[in-house]
């Protein structure tokens, strides 16, 4: 696998980095969810952890977008270079490039939605308290 072209090696490295960032983004997002009991009970801290997971998703999407675009650029360059094209040779973008662009877009969209879960300035420092439920028993006079 080492004698491959430089752009393929670079794309592979960017995709591995993207997978690692996405994995850690999933872990941080699950810890930062308000419905989980992992981590602290403070909602401000949990939302900051969720925002950090969103940033990791955005970075993961950018890495995969760079890898797919680098490969597509190389395919385009090889197509228009006259010395390497045979008469019957045809280059075209495969479906994996379009799936890669779609996955990168969805990853960045999901990360940006997670980043929107940052708490408001007036809510910072407040704790959420449960309201007491009204009693179901009634006194009869």
From TrEMBL:
- Membrane topology qualifier: Multi-pass membrane protein
**MF (Gene Ontology):** structural molecule activity
A GO cellular component term found in this entry reads:
bicellular tight junction
The reply to whether Protein biosynthesis figures as a keyword in the UniProt entry is no
- TM ranges are 12-31, 51-72, 93-114
Subcellular localization? Cell junction, Tight junction; Cell membrane
Tell me which UniProt keywords the record has, alphabetically: Cell junction, Cell membrane, Membrane, Tight junction, Transmembrane, Transmembrane helix
Which Pfam families does its entry note?
PMP22_Claudin
Chief localization:
other
Give the UniProt family note.
Belongs to the claudin family.
Q: Which protein are we looking at?
A: CLD19 protein
Q: Which organism is it from?
A: Scytalopus superciliaris
């Amino acid at each position: 696998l080492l004698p491959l072209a430089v752009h393929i090696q670079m794309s592979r490295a960017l995709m591995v980095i993207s997978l690692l960032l996405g994995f850690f983004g999933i872990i941080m997002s699950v810890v930062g969810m308000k419905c989980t009991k992992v981590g602290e009970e403070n909602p401000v801290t949990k939302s900051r952890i969720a925002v950090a997971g969103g940033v990791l998703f955005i970075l993961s999407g950018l890495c995969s977008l760079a890898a797919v675009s680098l490969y597509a650029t190389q395919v385009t360059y090889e197509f228009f270079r006259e010395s390497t094209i045979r008469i019957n040779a045809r280059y075209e973008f495969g479906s994996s490039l379009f799936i890669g662009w779609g996955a990168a877009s969805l990853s960045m969209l999901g990360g940006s939605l997670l980043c929107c879960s940052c708490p408001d300035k007036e809510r910072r420092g407040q704790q959420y308290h449960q309201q007491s439920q009204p009693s179901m028993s009634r006194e009869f006079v």
